[in-house]
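Please check this today:
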Amino acid sequence: MARLGVFGGSFDPPHLGHLVLAEAALRGLGLNRVLWVLTPAPPHKQGWKISPLAVRERMVSIMVEQNPQFDFSRVEMERPGPHYMVDTVMELGRRWPGDALVLLLGGDSLRDLPSWGRPQLLLEQCTLGVMRRPGAEPRLAELEEVLPGISKRTEFFDAPRMDISSSEIRRRVRSGAAYDHLVLPRVAAVIAGEGLYLEDAGGASPG
């Protein structure tokens, strides 16, 4: 039985922090592969200006090429939205029968899990692989009151601290600040070539 990491996001743009998290998860959680799941239009980001799907697909494909244990999953691109992670994980379970799915999360996403769509069902479909952040240990006891069984379904892994976010990169592009050191060179070339993030998106959405 293989252990497959599920790494989902809008990846607008994908950055070095994403790459570090995915590679640390491979080692720290003993994963066989990491599936990068590109979300066309995340339900929690409705109303935000988001880059064209084809452009984000090009950028994520560049990230996937960095490691032979990475795969690009189009599972959410191949079905209509809204795209909730519980539905995505269930579909991946049908596509990879017999394998164990590990949903990769940051500590902040773990804290917000009760607000996700059908979180209890999600826990029944996969385990959670959570990146441990120094000084920000998730309060599993509190989450257990809302989502019984979450403690037994959660595994932690360590990753180098990298304070990078997609929203910060978008802000830097709009303001003319340097951002090349936060993304892969080929991703930076796509951002520049497509003229991404030059217009004000109306706010800095997370991610």
Q: What stands out?
A: Confidence is low (pLDDT under 50) at residues 201-207. Helices lie at 16-28, 53-64, 85-95, 107-112, 119-125, 140-146, 166-175, 185-194. The chain has one domain: 3-162. The CA atoms of residues 3 and 111 lie 24 Å apart.
